[in-house]
Amino acid sequence: MHLRLRHLLLPALLLSAASALAAEVAVEAGDGATERLVEALIMAKPGDTIAIGAGRFELKEGLSLQVDDVRVKGAGPDATVLSFAGQTGSGEGLLVTSNRVVLEDFAVEDPKGDGIKSKGSDQITFRNLRVVWTGGPKESNGAYGVYPVSSQHVLIDGVTVSGASDAGIYVGQSQDIVVSNSRAEYNVAGIEIENSARADVYRNVATHNAGGILVFDLPNLPVQGGHDIRVFDNDVVDNDTGNFAPKGNTVAMVPKGMGIMVMANRNVHVFGNRLSGNGTAHVLIAAYPNEYEDADYMFVPRGVYVHDNEYGAGGNAPDGEVGKIISDISGTPVPDIVWDGVTRIPEYFSWVRPENRVYVSEPKATFINLKMISQMLLPWGWWPDRDASGYAGSLPEPAPVKLPQDSGA
Q1: Is the dihedral of CA 376, 381, 383, 387 positive or negative?
Q2: Which residues, 6+ apart, have CB-to-CB distance to 17 below 8 Å?
């Protein structure tokens, strides 16, 4: 065979051989089911499907998957239940550290730590899953329901999470993300995008959390500079659960009744959402409020564009320290859109460049710029600004996120 032709055919032959070796490994409920499931995950080969049957699987230890190109599929999130109520450790229910993995059609209940986590994964898909702490909102619940971190090409579609003591759906320090068609309820934060780049969050329901959808950048993390986030076509309603995060957690500062909150991130577009029943504020744009030591961190939001959302009643019950700070200045009800107005004088002339400004195009909504103090300076003056016309304009919208895996949209 000609050498060049052999080199062209070899990858196809290897792929064909791998496909031939791929198998569907069925794990049914019943005696020994836990051991069979653990073994199936450990012994999986690239291309395999681990088909978990209907039933309840009582697990005492967390599960892990370290093999690329594996699908873990149940019989449906109400039919296949992985219960960790008797878990002896405090780790995740399921941890994935491999690439091109699909997790779909099963439930995880009552993990001692996080529900389903991926770390360092490329092309990770969470689809039609349910993660729930059955005892309701409690500080002792695990922090995150679905938790990809340090991952890329992340798809979260058709997922339901309830009871997380930090965030139901959390994506951290990751790139190229889609969160769609999902429901987050009775968590501290419903959906959170943190220190991540290029994310689309759409067609989700965030309800009965302390805060609905958060887009944050935090200091002292290996990945800095979150940017290019689109939050659109979501229902962010009735976020009225008291904050039950453990004391000291960053998310513990989120007041009950927060709709969408953008903090210290860059180029964030919030549009086409439906917001109502959020007692503190529908939309808050804010600087990171705490002291920090991180020379690479920028604590103010830059390039935020809020437009064409629908607003119902809200702002009637501002909660906690944040709610009091806002309402002391704005009065009650709190306006639909609140910007704390914090800037840094050393970056002032950079901040007022068009790409770094805050833009609001909401002719039917109420607005306030609190013009709060930053570093003992008042960069904009003494009095709050309630006239959104001074913030007219727009930003070029980030391109839609495209993932190698099917979005299922």
Answers
A1: negative
A2: none
Q: What is the CATH number of domain 3-391?
A: 2.160.20
In 3D, which of 261, 236, 267 has the Cα closest to residue 397?
A: 267
What does the angle CA 22 – CA 28 – CA 30 come to, to the nearest 5 degrees? 150
Does the structure show a pLDDT above 90 at 373? no
| Dihedral sign of CA atoms 71, 120, 265, 280 in order | positive
Relative to beta strand 274-276, strand 310-311 is parallel
Q: Yes or no: say if 125 and 148 are a contact pair by the CB < 8 Å rule.
A: no
Please tell me the predicted confidence (pLDDT) of residue 376: 41
d(CA 49, CA 52): 9
Q: Mean pLDDT over all residues of the chain?
A: 91
Where do the domains of the chain lie? 3-391
Peptide linkage before 301 cis (omega within 30 of 0):
no
Q: Are the beta carbons of 386 and 368 closer than 8 angstroms?
A: yes
Neighbours of 320 (CB within 10 A): 18
Structure confidence at residue 79 (pLDDT): 98
User: In whole angstroms, what is the distance from residue 130 CA to residue 85 CA?
Assistant: 15
> According to the model, what pLDDT value does residue 152 have?
98
pLDDT higher than threshold 60 for residue 351: no
> 65-77 burial string, b = 16+ CB within 10 Å, else e?
bebbbbbbbbbeb
What is the model's pLDDT at position 345? Answer: 55
| CA atoms of 396 and 188, how far apart (whole Å) | 32
Angle CA(190)–CA(367)–CA(252) in degrees, nearest 5?
30
Chain centroid to Cα 143, Å, comes to: 12
Q: Which two tokens stand for residue 65?
A: 């998957």
Minimal CA–CA distance to 267: which of 302, 232, 300, 217?
302
Residue 119 — φ and ψ, nearest 5°?
Answer: -135, 125
Residue 90 in this model has a pLDDT that exceeds 80: no
Distance CA 380, CA 371 (A): 6
Residue 395's alpha-carbon distances to 141, 157, 247, 269, in angstroms, are: 40, 28, 37, 8
pLDDT at residue 353 in the model: 81
State residue 1's pLDDT score. Answer: 45
Task: For the chain, give the number of residues.
Answer: 409
pLDDT digits (tens, 9 = 90+) for 275-311: 999 999 999 999 999 999 998 899 999 999 999 999 9
Q: What is the DSSP letter of 332?
A: S
Q: Which residue bears the tokens 């039609």?
A: 128
Phi and psi dihedrals of 96, rounded to 5?
Answer: -115, 130
